[in-house]
Amino acid sequence: MGLNDIRLPGSVIAQLYRNTLVDTGVPDKARPISTPLLPETVYPEPEANSPAWKFLGENNRNILVIVNYPGLPHLPDEELAFLTKMLSACQLSLGDVAILNTSNYPNSGSKELQPFFKSKIVFLFGVSPAAFGLPVSFPAFQVQNVAGATYLYCPSMEERHTDELLKSKLWVCLRKIFGI
Question: If 0-12 CB within 10 Å is exposed, 13-18 middle and 19+ buried, where does residue 61 land?
Fold first, then answer.
């Protein structure tokens, strides 16, 4: 895909050109500051000590997938293929989620990640609720609501290779979460 073939959604174009794309008939200096032309998306200001989160996906549906693969930027190709297939079965894509490898951020957990990603659903693959910094502990394959988000803790994705029962338990939980 070349630079000339990039397609931006209308909302992004409107954000980029909010002062010049829409002619309200009112000069900029006469327009009250409290009434912007278009609603603005507000992102939290990064704190001085916060890391720049490197994640895979676009987080369009505020679904956070937490994995732990030391030495990798995200996750192995085989596990990514499994995750993509799993998302597709739920009528989702990689654009709907954010995949974050916590091994790259050892001192970060729900307290740091939740405000940034604004996650409604969080999948913990191979990362226990306690290790993620949640105030409650719950067993694998139990859908749990905590502080306005739905959490699902599962064993690491490699374990599904040896146990088909794990895959079926995961599917039951996904059906419950997404109403499939």
Answer: middle
Walk me through the domains of the chain, giving residue ranges and CATH numbers.
7-42 (no CATH), 56-178 (3.40.470.10)
Which value, in Å, is the radius of gyration of the alpha carbons in the chain?
Answer: 20
- Per the CB < 8 A criterion, the answer to whether 151 and 134 are in contact is yes
pLDDT tens for each residue of 57-109: 888 999 999 998 888 888 888 888 888 888 898 899 889 999 998 888 888 88
Those residues whose C-beta lies under 8 Å from the C-beta of residue 161, and which sit 6 or more positions away, are: none
Paired strand residues for 152: 123
Q: Is the dihedral of CA 171, 177, 178, 180 positive or negative?
A: positive
φ/ψ of 115, rounded to 5, equals -65, -35
pLDDT at position 19 is 55
The Cα–Cα gap between 15 and 116 comes to 20
pLDDT digits (tens, 9 = 90+) for 128-140: 898 888 888 888 8
Tokens of 148: 């306005």
Reference 155, options 170, 171, 135; nearest CA is 170
